[in-house]
Specification:
eight-stranded mixed sheet; four-stranded antiparallel sheet; elongated
Length: 351
Amino acid sequence: MSTLDPTADVVTLTRALVDLPSESGAEARIADAVEGALRALPHLTVDRVGNSVVARTGLGRSARALIAGHLDTVPAAGNLPARLADGRVHGLGACDMKGGVAVALRLAATVPAPERDLTYVFYECEEVEGDRNGLARIGAERPELLADAGLAILMEPSDAGVEAGCQGILTADIVVRGARAHTARAWQGVNAAHRAGEVLRRLDAHRPERVVIDGLEYREGLGAVAVRAGVAGNVVPDECVVTVNCRFAPSRSPEEAEACVRGLFPEYEVRVTEAVAGALPHLDRVGGLVAALGAEPRPKLGWTDVARFAALGVPALNYGPGDPALAHTAGEYVPVEHLQRCEAGLRAWLG
């Protein structure tokens, strides 16, 4: 079994985590190491759900906070093992999000008596389809492990700053119909791929809204991400499917986002394949934490698991080391300064 020393400095711990391969669906080894490290700490009660690990203090404090991070990474791209250079830890998952996991493990090990009770969640399968998400599995199988938290901190990379709330996601297929024919007699058919040009023109002309919530501006987006047509090189396609991705402000429901997309394409068949609500920033409920971290909150332009906490009634924010633009890239890294700043900020808040 691989071992981790959660009392090691945050840079050493980040490198050790990066060197434990944990592509989505293959997190057993890293989960074993995290579980072993946490079970050795007498001030924590530890539970295992699949390849996710939950550790809790039980100090009888008047409030409880939750700190969470996912253990999985996208597939490797020649970026293992970890290396330290130019004040940065380089390697697979260093940014997304083993640097954040290292910060949380350090706090779990070295803050045995915080001012509020704490729940630490290290979970599997965040980088893949939602029905495999470890946080969702914990919520379904062991909801009591999550439900009593008053707020949650998700250690997603956020440039060591606070990103509040998150956008919702809607993915839909716009289906354009035509009529098949042999390409030698193309005039006898109706080319659905050609007719899809109107869908693409409409998308190109669309100007998404900017929605301000709690003083934060969420920029919505709607665009084509795939176009599929044709069954053979000598057949005029009778169907063309344009897949669109919509990122909508957290003040809108998935139903409202769907109505917007359908309203743009009333004459076409619209098949919604994914619809996930976002999360409001709730700065009125997390403002004390934001102030303690000394961070100017920014809107989260994207979807994260803060939305899962919102669905549980737990206000949450994103706060972690690393530039989110580097996530999933072959050259991802996390600055040492980010690791140290996030650890120091949370340590001071925990007391």
